[in-house]
Amino acid sequence: MSRCALYRRLAEAERVVQISAPAGSGKTVLMRSWIAEAGLARHAAWVPVDSEERDPQGFWISVADGLRGTTPGSALVRPLTAAPGLDGWAAVERLLTDLAPLEDRLWLVIDDAHLLDSGEVLRQLELLLLRAPQELRFVLATRHDLRLGLHRLRLEGELTEVRAADLRFSLAEARSLFGMAGVELPADALARLHGRTEGWAAGLRLATLSLAGHPDPEQFAAEFSGTDRTVAEFLLAEVLDRQSEAVRRLLLRTSVLERVSGPLADALTGSSGGERILQDLERAGAFVVSLDAGRSWFRYHRLFADLLELELRRTEPKERAVLHAAAAAWLAGHGHPVEAVRQAQAAEDWGMAARLLSDHWLDLYLGGRGATLVELLAGFPGRVVADSPELATVQVAGDLIRGSLADAGRHLAQAAGALPTVPADRRGRVQVMLAVLRLFLARRLVDVPVVVEEAQRLLAITEAADAAHLELGEDLRAVAFISLGIAEIWALRFEDAERHLKHGVAMARRIGRPYLELHGLAHGAHEMLLFRPDAAPAEWSTQAIELAEQHGWVEESLAGMAYAQLGIGLLRQGRLDEAEPWLERAERTLRTEVEPGAGMSLRYARAVLELARGRYQEALAAFRGAEKLTATLVRPHTCATSMRSWMLQTLVRLGQTGRAEQALAELGEDARASAEMRTAVAALRLASDDPQGAADALAPVLDGSLCGVRRVRMVTALLLEARARDALGDQAAAGRVLERALDITESTGMVLPFLLEPAPALLERHRRYRTAHPALISQILNLLLRPARAVPPPGSQARSAPSRRGLDEQLTDSETRILRYLPTHLTAPEIASELYLSVNTVSTHTRHLYAKLGVHSRHEAVDRARALGLLAPSTRRAQDGIATAM
User: Fold this and answer.
1) Quick count: other Cβ atoms within 10 Å of Cβ 30?
2) How far is residue 286's CA from residue 28's CA, in Å, rounded to a whole number?
3) Collapsing DSSP states into helix, strand and coil, what is residue 17?
4) For the chain, what is the total number of helices (H) and then of strands (E)?
5) What is the pLDDT of residue 53?
6) Does residue 880 or residue 791 have the better pLDDT?
7) When comparing pLDDT for 732 and 285, which is higher?
8) What pLDDT is stored for residue 813 in this prediction?
9) Which residues pair with 109 in a beta bridge?
10) Measured between alpha carbons, how far is residue 419 from residues 268, 385, 423 in Å?
11) Is residue 842 predicted with pLDDT exceeding 70?
């Protein structure tokens, strides 16, 4: 089969090519197929090194014969014959003399060059490499790097290196290989087989041979391993049987490990020098792979590891448990707890495994390694977990990671009841862990009193005089401050909340806990967005996403929370096309069973987006999904009443006024009296041609009788009031109310209510009079009249805006939004925060804005925009104009 990328590398290679890879990697096949593909048969001298006869004289005779067999070399290279006086150095000098006039490109290909174990031959070959004419090119295929002084060629840029990683077959190449053999495998079976072989050419080819005519190819692919007869025979003959007894012992006894270091190998063999052996094996291409730059940790190729385990079971069947136990002890003592737990489980030393996991589960949890924690917990038999109070505690953490909150509560109660049975020297630690788990569960369930109680308990424990010995003390303090801050947001103590959140996040950053930092940023941004949408720090969501990207957590639920927050912020600004991809990304990522509160916010945002789009059935379905999640929380979600209000208004839009009336009647008196439900009643009355009833329902909201009405809700009420007054024939009152709604929207930037309660006719009429918000009205009308566009990827700026008289080029939506902030005293970073943009993006749009307006400063831009009607007049003139109009 063709491997075009590798062929190109060889064709464009430097003067010397070294192809260094283990046995069976496809070195010989690659070279032969490339020569055939490139039409180099008459320009390439093929010299295989004979394992039986490797004396210098025989080698150089083979080189001369090979060169003479090519078109360029046939006229230049004189024959060499065996003679007592023929010396390798003389042979090299003679070849250099013969090849000096070479003008055509000529390739010397030496296969199995690692067999040139004579230092003299290698030095002679090095001389030829260094002094050969430019048109003589070398390809050296070897199982390990050759000691040829290649570093000099590397520094001079005359060396091309092809290694095992380059020779590995990609999944597509593996599919092609099987296809050529007439073997068809389903995609998942092929992927498993490719993963097991790690793209190793011989492994794939041997699998191909075994698959031909196999009655169940999928089962074969699932079970294929290094113990397969053909693979085992190859690896035994080419690798294992060629090693000394000491090396074989090390390989077999360390085959029980996922990875191995020199000191760990020494511990399992009872010998010394393990690191040198491993480094030599890696250098020799013996299916040993280095895992770090210092070449101190290694692993075995998967198929080779399978073979080694098979050989260990065959030769030392009783040693496996002993080796696992010894490995567990060494790993635990050298700071590798996860591998130590796995080894203790493999040894069936359940007591040791349970103690290790109990001691280290919180470190895994706070480090974002929840999946590893769940996997380790699953490695215990059920009876062991049931009999261990400490594992019962860890089981609660597993429940939280899986999102099984009901099970978490049940297991937490069981673990607390079993606390007296924990050994006295470990009871205090388990007690602290139970407090941590109570805190985690309460936060998920929005159980504010318990969160506050347990957070303060943790702070007290970590501040106690005898807490110096407590492991993860700083981590627990960071957890407590972040949790306390979240609870204080729920309690509307925003200054305390922001202080504690910032302190907890800063502490997490200082102690090197990025996942805990992500936790604080994501939850802090989410709760602030719910309770203080006009003051929510947009940069928290941005920082959370950047942190998730840095650490590979982009598919974590915490990252999903940050995506949702960005989407919700954009949604409130009326930027539906930009909000939707963020919400979709959150829907793919955020696990609502893990974060039900955040999941409810996301479903609510999706419902509102669908409502703004006019897709009422989809909106109703999303509202019901949000309502279902609300029922799982201890404390009602802060958006629950607002969500039910919009759900009723959605029923009204669908013409189901009877169901809306029934739902309102089923509410308690206090709920019906809320600002949210009064707006729902107003919408229902307007749909029933009762504008006076709508105005009566809204009166307590608008006259200040109801306290604590949020500004976004107030805008919705004002829009409904404007429609009611207009229906009653009082256009002047409708205009005044509409101007109040525009005043609030101008100050908050939250355009969404105008999209949820669309009143384009009122807005068109209103902008014909003296209004302080002509640009805002135009923006809203543009959003109302514009159909939904194809969804752009997050971060892209969609371009569209109404044309303006006096402008050669229309402003984009982004430029219009930035223009509205120029009359304020906000700095560029503050404008960026308001608009959920980066400072660089704001600066770019501002430059474009200045160019389109033909100005050079912010002051000039404001004056020019006012002259063109893009901005309202100055405050005093605007107030005078409104008074005159009224």
Assistant:
1) 22
2) 17
3) strand
4) 49, 8
5) 53
6) 791
7) 732
8) 72
9) 46, 139
10) 37, 14, 9
11) yes
